[in-house]
């Protein structure tokens, strides 16, 4: 029993790669510059070998501090580069044909280790386009006319998800597998009450189009409670302003009275009193400005 358990453990260790033979997934868009990191600091006598594809053909190597890059390899042309401190492989302007398995072999007197990178390169994401979908809605029930019908589309996509978001919450989404097709997703709103956006996404990156206030949908009318709330804010602000002005005047009056009594008062002190009053005044005008802005927003 014990024997079979330890045997099972050994098998597990072997299959999960106790010798460092892990596969790391790397996703990139065409045109990106991709770095496959060795995660080591190279020592003088280290040999680092990079291989690519099912044939595991050698594409780059550092040995005794000499860098070798396969210049004859047609699929990479002049895209490959090696970091001479770490031995990391850099692939510039990556294309879909550079998708595949990259194998790293580090050979030194401390023992060998290897690592694999599964690189997937995807076509760039198109910008999702939002259009009005209500052109032929006029024939249906009259209430739908006031609704705002939208359609978000992304052309020539594969392995993506297209989604509608309201703020940060997902409203709806649709996914396609590998086929390169055009996707679209409708959205029906009564009016625009939040920030809506359409997102086209791979698992590792995305592009977003926001539905801006002005086009396609009318903003929702202001709610009653909201304007009541705004009015009470304005009233409170006005009261605060009044208090501030009264306090400022009282302060000034007190200071002036004091300076009248003590004719010998230091000049600094009087200056100081003036400054505080000025500060008050500046502050109060700020409040007035804020009030006016608030109020006009409510009116429009
Ligand atoms: C590499 O990634 C692709 C796409 O994610 C997957 O289909 C494939 O099975 C992976 N290959 C390996 C060897 O992990
Ligand atoms: C608009 O009309 C087309 C066909 O003329 C139809 O396929 C589509 O579903 C209609 N759209 C809506 C929102 O009714
Ligand atoms: C208008 O849109 C709302 C959702 O925003 C929907 O519940 C309602 O059915 C729509 N009305 C019509 C007539 O399509
Ligand atoms: C889009 O990408 C950004 C950054 O890469 C990420 O923060 C965000 O969550 C992604 N959004 C969606 C909807 O996937």
From TrEMBL:
<dbReference type="InterPro" id="IPR003599">
    <property type="entry name" value="Ig_sub"/>
</dbReference>
<dbReference type="InterPro" id="IPR013106">
    <property type="entry name" value="Ig_V-set"/>
</dbReference>
<keyword id="KW-0732">Signal</keyword>
<dbReference type="Pfam" id="PF07686">
    <property type="entry name" value="V-set"/>
</dbReference>
<dbReference type="InterPro" id="IPR036179">
    <property type="entry name" value="Ig-like_dom_sf"/>
</dbReference>
<protein>
    <recommendedName>
        <fullName>Ig-like domain-containing protein</fullName>
    </recommendedName>
</protein>
<dbReference type="InterPro" id="IPR013783">
    <property type="entry name" value="Ig-like_fold"/>
</dbReference>
<feature type="domain" description="Ig-like">
    <location>
        <begin position="128"/>
        <end position="212"/>
    </location>
</feature>
<feature type="transmembrane region" description="Helical">
    <location>
        <begin position="229"/>
        <end position="253"/>
    </location>
</feature>
<feature type="signal peptide">
    <location>
        <begin position="1"/>
        <end position="20"/>
    </location>
</feature>
<keyword id="KW-0472">Membrane</keyword>
<dbReference type="InterPro" id="IPR007110">
    <property type="entry name" value="Ig-like_dom"/>
</dbReference>
<keyword id="KW-1133">Transmembrane helix</keyword>
<keyword id="KW-0812">Transmembrane</keyword>
């Amino acid at each position: 029993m014990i024997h079979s358990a330890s045997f099972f453990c050994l098998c597990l260790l072997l299959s999960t790669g106790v010798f460092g033979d892990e596969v790391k997934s790397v996703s990139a868009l065409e045109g990106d510059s991709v770095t496959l990191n060795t995660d080591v600091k190279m020592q003088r006598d280290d040999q680092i070998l990079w291989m690519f594809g099912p044939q595991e053909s050698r594409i780059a190597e550092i040995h005794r501090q000499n860098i070798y890059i396969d210049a004859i390899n047609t699929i990479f042309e002049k895209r490959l580069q090696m970091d001479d401190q770490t031995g990391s492989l850099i692939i510039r302007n990556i294309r879909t044909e550079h998708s595949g398995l990259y194998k790293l072999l580090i050979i030194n007197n401390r023992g060998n280790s290897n690592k694999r990178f599964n690189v997937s390169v995807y076509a760039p994401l198109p910008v999702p386009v939002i259009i009005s979908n209500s052109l032929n809605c006029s024939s249906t029930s009259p209430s739908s006319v006031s609704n705002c019908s939208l359609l978000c589309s992304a052309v020539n996509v594969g392995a993506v998800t297209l989604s509608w978001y309201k703020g940060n919450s997902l409203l709806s989404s649709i996914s396609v597998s590998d086929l390169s097709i055009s996707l679209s997703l409708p959205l029906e709103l009564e009016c625009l009450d939040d920030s809506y956006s359409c997102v086209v996404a791979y698992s590792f990156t995305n592009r977003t189009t926001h539905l801006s206030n002005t086009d396609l949908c009318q903003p929702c009318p202001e709610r009653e409670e909201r304007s009541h709330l705004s009015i009470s804010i304005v009233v409170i602000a006005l009261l605060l302003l009044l208090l501030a002005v009264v306090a400022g005047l009282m302060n000034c009056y007190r200071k002036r009275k004091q300076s009248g009594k003590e004719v010998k008062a230091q000049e600094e002190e009087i200056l100081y009193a003036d400054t505080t009053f000025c500060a008050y005044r500046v502050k109060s005008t700020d409040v007035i400005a804020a009030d006016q802005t608030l109020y006009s927003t409510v009116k429009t």
